[in-house]
Design brief:
With about 150 residues, the chain is an alpha+beta fold. Helices cover about 25% and strands about 35% of the residues. A hairpin with a 6-residue loop joins strand 2 and strand 3.
Length: about 150
C-alpha cells in the first residue's frame, strides 16, 4: 500500500479584490477549503502546489502569480483520514502558498474530490472554511497583499 506523505501544501487562490476561491470536499459535505494536497515522491513544494492546483481546479499556476508564503502549520491529522498515512503518523506539516489570479475564474473540479466551488470575499471565506490553518492563511491575506503592493 502506498501511503500519503505527512507533508502538504495549502494554496489560497485569490483575486486583487481579495475574493477567495473555496472548494467543497466530496468526502465531507459542508467542508469548504482552499486547495490542499500531499507531496508525492521527491517533488518540491512548489511542484506539489502547481500539481494540486491543476488537479483540483484545472488552473495552470504558470499563468498566474504563485508565491510561497514561507510559513508552515503542523497539525494533528483527523482520525477519519489517518488510514491514508503510514501507521503511527499523527501529524502533518502544511506549507502555505498563495495564487493570485486576475478575477473570479471558472474552475474545473476534480471528480470524486470536490463537488462545488464558490468565490467569496475574504472575510466570508474565513468563516466558511473548516480548517483552522486555512482560516489563518485567509486571515493573513490582506496584510500579504498590502505588503506585496508596495
Amino acid at each position: 500500500m502506498s501511503y500519503k506523505q505527512p507533508v502538504s501544501v495549502l494554496v489560497v487562490i485569490y483575486t486583487p479584490q481579495l475574493d477567495v476561491l473555496l472548494i467543497e470536499r466530496a468526502d465531507k459535505a459542508g467542508y469548504w477549503q482552499s486547495v490542499t494536497g500531499s507531496r508525492e515522491g521527491e517533488e518540491t513544494l512548489a511542484e506539489t502546489a502547481r500539481r494540486e492546483l491543476y488537479e483540483e481546479t484545472g488552473l495552470d499556476a504558470s499563468r498566474y502569480l504563485l508565491e510561497d508564503w514561507r510559513y508552515t502549520n503542523t497539525y494533528e491529522i483527523f482520525d477519519h483520514w489517518r488510514a491514508r498515512y503510514a501507521p503511527g503518523t499523527t501529524h502533518n506539516v502544511e506549507h502555505v502558498f498563495g495564487l493570485r489570479v486576475p478575477s473570479r475564474l471558472p474552475v474545473t473540479l476534480a471528480p470524486g474530490e470536490h463537488v462545488a466551488y464558490q468565490w467569496l470575499p475574504w472575510r466570508e471565506a474565513l468563516d466558511r472554511v473548516f480548517s483552522p490553518s486555512n482560516a489563518d492563511a485567509i486571515a493573513r491575506l490582506p496584510a500579504r497583499v498590502s505588503v506585496c503592493a508596495r
